[in-house]
Amino acid sequence: MNEQEEQQWVDRIDAVFLPVRDLEESLAWYQNVFGFALRWKNERMCGLVIAPNCGFHLVQTPGFEPITNYTPFNYVVRDLEDARSRLLAKGVTVSPLRKGEPKRFDMTDVNGNLISVIEL
């Protein structure tokens, strides 16, 4: 085992947990806007299917406050303009395209959480 392998022993991040105000409302919104299938659900949280080896979970949290001062993660898309058009057609609040690389814009979910969408 080389020095790099000894120092880095975590393979990947398994899941993102996004805080939400109301689990049922948020689940319906994410399924309607993105078409994410439900993988599992309990009284407080659920897991949605996005891609293999990518866990995306909504977590209803007491005293919920939306994440508005940074984007906790990015959705990666193949066609940024198409993704932005799809979101606008669903009534989602989106920012103008950002300058620089990668090509990107921000969106706001039903809870007021700020999330980035990027094209790679």
Strand-helix topology:
Layout: H1 3-7, E1 15-20, H2 23-34, E2 37-41, E3 45-51, E4 54-60, E5 74-77, H3 80-89, E6 93-94, E7 103-108, E8 114-119
Parallel strand pairs: 1-4, 5-8
Antiparallel strand pairs: 2-3, 3-4, 6-7, 7-8
What does this 3D model show about the protein?
With 120 residues, this protein is α/β, with parallel strands linked by helices. It has a single domain (3-119), classed as Roll (2,3-Dihydroxybiphenyl 1,2-Dioxygenase, domain 1). Helices cover 22% and strands 36% of the residues. It contains three helices and eight strands, in the order αβαββββαβββ. It has helices spanning 3-7, 23-34, 80-89, and strands at residues 15-20, 37-41, 45-51, 54-60, 74-77, 93-94, 103-108, 114-119. A four-stranded mixed beta sheet has the order 1-4-3-2. Strand 7 (103-108) and strand 8 form a beta hairpin. The longest helix is centred in the first third of the chain and has 12 residues, at 23-34. The protein is globular.
